Amino acid sequence: MSSQEAPVITLYDIPSRLPINAWSLNMWKSRFALNFKGLPHKTHWVEYPDIEQTMKQIGAAPTEKRADGSDHYTCPVISDPGSERTAPAVVSDSWDIALYLDKAYPSAPLLFPKGTVILQEVYIQKLNQLVLSPVMRLLISFMPTHLNPRSAEYFTKTREEWVGKKIDDFCPPGPEREKALDQMKEGLEKLAGLLDKYDGGAERMFVSGEEPVFADFVLASTFEWAKIVGEEEVWSEVKSWHGGRWERFLNTVEAKYGKVY
Q1: Do both 161 and 194 map to the same domain?
Q2: If you count Cβ atoms within 10 Å of the first and of the last residue's Cβ in the chain, which end, N or C, has fewer?
Q3: Domain range spanning residue 166?
Q4: How far apart are CA 179 and CA 26, in angstroms?
């Protein structure tokens, strides 16, 4: 099926006040995946307070349970009209979206080449531990200033309830922030060592070799979030580490797969 004949998938994302609009770690995973597979798509922007109602309207599944047992709805979600079905396929969660895209469009480049799903899941868990976890609260603390007013109010209220402190105190300037960045740098150093271990020390850009897989887009999405919402505080540091390899990595992924539709 040519790209002109292919149905247009809708990606549900959360807008911002930023020029690029797109900012979210998890939505970037799905956007990179869609672009990698060359699938025509468009973005439907949903403010935070409207996510639950919107997802219920389109038949999206909740992604988790709240502490009180109620359903919690999140983005990303895709709605794929397909070509031979009577109702769109609606898929929630970036991991499940990636699995669905490979199953529904197996002739396109694969996010999970044969036999790699479990390996990538384990690798992604390690990525999150080494790279994302140290700076998660720091990046969250930057978000209210970048969101539209209704979403900023909702985001701040819910995150403060989850963490149990004011959002400005999640990772304030000083020793706590310095420790977070140091831990991220140490994590990336371990990751670099792992990536280069079996290529004679040569810099390996993607975990599987010449072409990216979904796990690479998870790393790129972490960097994208840091760059968009914390360029001065976080990304300016990251891009200078380890000979600039992480900036080269993100620039490569952005150039090929970073277009926002």
Answers
A1: yes
A2: N
A3: 117-257
A4: 25
